[in-house]
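Purpose: get a first structural picture of the assembly so the mutagenesis plan has something to point at.
Setup: two entries, given in the order below. No constraints added.
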Amino acid sequence: MAIDSAGLAAIRLTLELAAVTTTVLLVVGTPIAWWLARTGSRWKGVVGAVVALPLVLPPTVIGFYLLVALGPHGPVGQLTQALGLGLLPFTFAGLVVGSVFYSLPFVVQPLQNAFEAIGERPLEVAATLRAGAIDTFFSVVLPLARPGFVTATILGFAHTVGEFGVVLMIGGNIPEKTRVVSVQIYDHVEALEYAEAHWLSAGMLVFSFVVLLALYGRKKEVVR
Amino acid sequence: MSGAAPFGPGAARTGAIAGDDAAIRARFGLGWPDFRLDVDLALPGRGVIALFGHSGSGKTTLLRCLAGLERAADGYLAVRGELWQDESQHLFVPTHRRPLGYVFQEASLFAHLTVQRNLEFGLKRVPAASRRIPLDQAIALLGIEPLLARTPGRLSGGERQRVAIARALATSPRLLLMDEPLAALDVKRKQEILPYLERLHAELDIPVIYVSHAPEEVARLADHVVLLADGRALAAGPIGEVMARLDLPFAHDEDAFVVIDARVAAHDEAYALTRLEFAGLPLWVPGLGAPLASRVRARVLARDVSLALSERHDSSILNVLPARVVSLDEADPGRTLVCLDVAGTPLLARITRRSAAQLGIVPGRDVYAQVKGVALLR
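Result (structure tokens, whole complex):
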């Protein structure tokens, strides 16, 4: 077997991180996307820009500031300590926090586009058919935005699997705790273990290709 | 307007009485930088009420205010004994708590649901005790049984609009609002839907407020008309009276007409003619299609009515009605528009100004209206 137990542990950790992160992102990203799609507020541009920042910033910048904020002297770090949660950097929870920030635009933007595409009309129709706001969200908006949710889930998951800089900065390189596949590959290369690096890298390449193929293949579906 | 005017502006506003429990009382004032709606209406709580006007006149905005889709800063709305909005006490019932039906201009079915589940969407949100129109009746009324299993994407525009109407009806609304439901359809589809709308009118006791800019639709469907321009109500009243008012644009249209609601009194099989009766007067129309004793609506174009001072029996014209001249409009140098009172029913005649002068047509004069053509609208 070309992938050793450390490699398998890294794969398992990566999938776990991506799954948890994606779930958190769908819960957090949906209201943000809904607000961005519907608001007339002058803060819309500011919030939209903040959400999009990870698209352009080097991951090390995000990782650095998260490390400062979550660290023992940072505001979030002091809060987590006061709550008895300890410190988040170099833990799995810390990785999730970092990944949520890093992958936020990949979830929020497809959702926002889907919500905007629905427009005002179906919401008004639902209101004239006695559906209140929350009822309408679950019975009309969610089903109509389903393609957007699929895209957001796939992109959020895949992007989290593919991250490197943020996790390295905030998670370090602790086997079975924070050492994800991309970090493991980096380790192999550093140690000149090219065969092992190849196996994991090729696995990532195939995984990413299959995910994107699923995504773009799906886009051709006619939504009636 | 001149002379004693039984159809004058004052008379036209008595279509419904404020405070009447069965009526609709609506006052809205709201503005945008480029448009302001300012209306105060008392409408009857039954029949079809047409909101008529050019695009940009505020018809749709008024309808959205009635539905609660817009909230007028200055607003009051009472519908058949229920208060839906009164900004003086900050009362505003949100749309989803108002027992109304709304049919949008373009088909607005939920794309993710079949026709059946579209129909059930509103129905299942209405408490069982408030359901007065069974789903089966709504389905039958609009003739959509064969479509139930389909998705909206597989329906024609006319079919979609029929489903949308049935969906609104299935909520047993106390008021049905329709925003140009036929505007997006071609002539053929319109002809397909109009009979269903008429059945609705005949079979259900739900007041319908119907936005339209098409005079032929208004003539066929409406009992009451509100004429809107620049966000204001220029006039409101029973259709027969509003269409004949010389101070309103309808009467000045090249195809100006009045409608007469009548009863089918007799058939003349030998000559294939039908005798209608209105206000105790006969009106002959070609054909035998209308069943005896049914209520029908006839349309008489202003250009098809000529005037005589005596009741002639030596002409080919079948319909000669005694009338009194109410008012004249002589704005056009060649033609005079005459508003007549035929036993309480308004009639318009367009004659040459020369004829008007030679015959001495003045308000108050008794004349005979010779009606060359009558068309049955329904």
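Chain A has one domain: 18-174.
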